[in-house]
Amino acid sequence: MIKGIIFDFDGVISDSEVLYVESLVAYLKTIGIDCAFDEVQYVIGQNMNDIASCLIRQFDLKLPAEKVIRDSLNVYQSMFSVKNMEPMEGLKEFLERCRKKGIRMMVASSSDYSYLYDALDHFGIRDYFETVISGADFVHSKPDPSIYNTSAQRLGIDKKDLMIIEDSLNGIKAGIASGIYTVAFKGSKIVQDTSLADKEVYSFSEIEL
After folding, report:
1. Same domain, yes or no, for 155 and 197?
2. Is there a single domain that holds both residue 128 and residue 169?
3. Measuring CA to CA, which residue among 115, 197, 195 is closest to residue 164?
4. Could you report the per-residue pLDDT of 107-162, keeping only the tens digit for each?
5. Distance (Å, rounded) from C-alpha 191 to C-alpha 30?
6. Are residues 28 and 101 in the same domain?
7. Is the pTM of this model over 0.90?
8. 199 with 183: CB under 8 angstroms?
9. CA dihedral 36, 66, 56, 167 (to 10 degrees)
């Protein structure tokens, strides 16, 4: 019986990853690098430090990670804000269904706290979640399972009674490694390999509670 659900944010609660990858392409263009969307979408699911490290290696950037993070975020913020974002279709109905069943919920995302809280407030759904955990609190990002192990401890629910909803390959690997039942949500416009998940769904209505 499911007693708790741990939600990833980007690609699950909102299809924000499309916007973020577009901003990375735009950022790289500002430093003279032309690349296609699909050349950088693999970074989805990682925290900012790991994303910066990936870009530095991939494009042989002679820049410190701190500058890559700062400048790429500046480009993102100049292009988009939470006001440009919308919750996934069917999300609010699913959250209400979970609440009526007494299922406890939280968010565990690689994104920063300020972004997560702003977006949840903008969508009017923050009060559905008991707590929020950011990848900023962890040395290693997904696919390392630390964030999900800590989430289970934070909820105080046995892992066999938990469910993770993820969309990215890294997130799914983290969920599986944590030993928690992991559902791949495929409602995003970005197509990813989710074959490792315990189950794949295309809408929240397909998730059995």
Report:
1. yes
2. yes
3. 197
4. 999 888 999 999 999 999 999 999 999 998 998 889 999 999 999 999 999 999 99
5. 26
6. no
7. no
8. yes
9. -50
